[in-house]
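Input structure tokens:
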């Protein structure tokens, strides 16, 4: 079920077609959009120009529109959360999905993240204009 502030028709369509357990990739401008997700995944390009649309804005809008139960992020080369990830964790702190649980966060190193994003359950790639490196998120849709 879709709730929230989204107005973008292709994005709404792709989210409405996704179900429980499906995954959504929110990718920065540096991500390999054409090869970094299954060919069957819908692709929505919001990367109008550098910085537009930022990953944080996409994360806010998507998390208000579908129940997000888990978020996996691409860890930095040092194995840490990037500035964008920390910002998103702070903004989404306290968000709960359908069963009342808070969103589970985890990180994967770059190559493991790419592998996870190419899995067949990734149904949507959203390309952002985010230029800060390691600003990539794989969201798992839960039960509303």
């Amino acid at each position: 079920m879709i709730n929230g502030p989204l107005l973008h028709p292709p994005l709404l369509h792709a989210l409405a077609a996704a179900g429980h357990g499906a995954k959504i990739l929110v990718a920065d401008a540096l991500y390999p959009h054409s090869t970094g997700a299954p060919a069957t995944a819908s692709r929505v390009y919001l990367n109008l120009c550098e910085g537009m649309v930022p990953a944080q804005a996409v994360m806010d809008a998507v998390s208000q529109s579908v129940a997000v139960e888990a978020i996996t992020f691409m860890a930095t080369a040092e194995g840490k959360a990037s500035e964008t990830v920390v910002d998103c964790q702070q903004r989404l702190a306290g968000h709960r999905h359908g069963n009342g649980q808070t969103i589970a966060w985890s990180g994967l190193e770059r190559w493991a993240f790419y592998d996870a994003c190419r899995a067949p359950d990734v149904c949507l790639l959203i390309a952002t204009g985010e230029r800060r490196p390691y600003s990539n998120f794989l969201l798992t849709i839960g039960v509303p």
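The mean pLDDT is 92. The two ends are 7 Å apart (CA to CA).
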